[in-house]
From TrEMBL:
It comes from Lactobacillus kefiranofaciens. It is found in: Cytoplasm. GO terms for molecular function: damaged DNA binding; DNA-directed DNA polymerase activity; magnesium ion binding. SUPFAM superfamilies: DNA/RNA polymerases, Lesion bypass DNA polymerase (Y-family), little finger domain. The lineage of its organism: Bacteria, Bacillati, Bacillota, Bacilli, Lactobacillales. This is DNA polymerase IV. It catalyses: DNA(n) + a 2'-deoxyribonucleoside 5'-triphosphate = DNA(n+1) + diphosphate. The record marks 25 as: Substrate discrimination. The keyword Cell membrane does not apply. GO terms for biological process: DNA repair; DNA-templated DNA replication; error-prone translesion synthesis; SOS response.
């Protein structure tokens, strides 16, 4: 069988934008502390003040020049960057959520077909948009400009006919750039990319592919589809489609209808060693969950908690409620029970706590109207 008829029919008629904020947390902090502009800024706790603990959440491009990157032990940044240039700043997640919401409000001026992947990253399907603008590139440029002028932040975007190409484009554009990949340019663009840049090709798959003399997207496209399929199963088929510029996944809007859970989690520095303090946090989360559910008219059937200690051990525990509910008291009762069933974490210090509710059903009764 030839490779062509193993692949699905391509769709080149959609217009997709992928936008990703540059060095997101670090850029927000630089904006709010202009005196740090010329420093190597690392978001995370300073390991020199806590016995060498912690990891880098992210860092600015100046710090990246020294080889610092996300998820690296913070102490390594201390070794890499000259002392007089290095600044650690504690993350302020509430602020990042606020900025993210502002970015999203600009996106929703263009379309409601916005699919968030992370706080700082989203896909927009602008094939049909609220502005009535034909040029998806113009829409993306205007969005990027607005984020810069209203929020003082840099972002990068890719525009193409599918999600995977748009995302490859925005990665390629970083920092503060843009990549437009038209249908007849896609194979050229992909051909020159290293396979490590393709989603789904991790270190192990890379190694396997290198053994087959496959280093670039161009090499990858030469490999018959059935070979990739046989070797890498389901993922191989996805990789094969990518090599040919195909990705048929729709942009799925973040609307309430698509939501399968609502949760709240926070990291704590310094860590929490006290049960009452942990429970107070969880009670606050439950109040937030009740508010969110009431807004949407949903009841939740299951409560899930997540606890992480200073050694980065993480447990999640879940329990089904007797009846679906939107009451913070009921959520908290269960969350407290689940929390007490996690042993040994308080002693090590808790650095992350989360409560999520899931298994939604529509709340069908109407509250009684006391006054007409
Ligand atoms: N983040 C984190 N831990 C990671 C990766 C990321 O806490 N391992 C956080 C910090 C980032 C934000 O998520 O600011 C967005 O992640 P990105 O991977 O998009 O990284 P940046 O926006 O920081 O940099 P880039 O310019 O490469 O997008
Ligand atoms: Mg980013």
């Amino acid at each position: 069988m030839s490779k062509e008829n193993l692949l699905p029919q391509n769709d080149i008629h959609r217009r997709i934008i992928h936008l990703d904020m540059d060095a997101f947390y670090a850029s927000v902090e630089t904006r709010d502390h202009p005196e740090l502009k010329n420093k190597a800024l690392v978001v995370g706790q300073d390991p020199r003040h806590n016995g060498g603990h912690g990891v880098v959440a992210t860092c600015n491009y100046h710090a990246r020049k020294y080889g610092v990157h996300s998820a690296m032990p913070a102490i390594q940044a201390v070794h890499l960057v000259p002392e007089e240039e290095l600044v650690f700043i504690r993350p302020n997640f509430e602020k990042y959520h606020r900025v993210s919401a502002q970015v999203h409000s600009f996106m929703h001026e263009i379309t409601d077909l916005v699919e968030s992947v992370a706080l700082d990253e989203a896909y927009l399907d602008v094939t049909h948009n609220k502005i009535g603008q034909e040029s998806s590139v113009q829409l993306a440029l205007d969005l990027q400009k607005k984020i810069k002028s209203k929020l003082g932040l840099n972002s990068s975007f890719g525009v193409s006919y599918n999600k995977f190409l748009a995302k490859m484009g925005s990665e390629y554009a970083k920092p503060f750039g843009r990549t437009v990949i038209l249908p007849d340019e896609a194979l050229n663009f992909l051909g020159m990319q290293k396979i490590a840049k393709f989603p789904g090709i991790g270190p192990k798959t890379q190694e396997e592919l290198h053994k087959m003399d496959v280093y670039t997207g161009g090499d990858l496209r030469q490999v018959p589809v059935f070979v990739l399929l046989k070797k890498f199963k389901k993922m191989g088929y996805i990789i094969a489609q990518h090599a040919h510029g195909i990705d048929l996944r729709p942009v799925v809007a973040d609307s309430d209808a698509n939501r399968k859970s609502i949760g709240m989690e926070r990291t704590y520095e310094p860590a929490i060693y006290n049960r009452d303090e942990a429970l107070t946090k969880m009670r606050n989360y439950c109040e937030y969950l009740e508010k969110e559910l009431k807004k949407r008219g949903f009841h939740a059937g299951t409560v899930v908690i997540k606890v992480r200690n200073n050694n980065f051990e993480t447990v999640t525990k879940r329990r089904k409620l007797k009846h679906p509910s939107d009451s913070c008291f009921e959520f908290f009762d269960v969350a407290k029970d689940l929390f007490d069933s996690v042993h040994g974490f308080l002693e090590d210090g808790i650095r992350l706590l989360g409560v999520t509710v899931t298994d939604f059903e529509k709340n069908n009764y109407q509250p009684i109207k006391l006054f007409e």
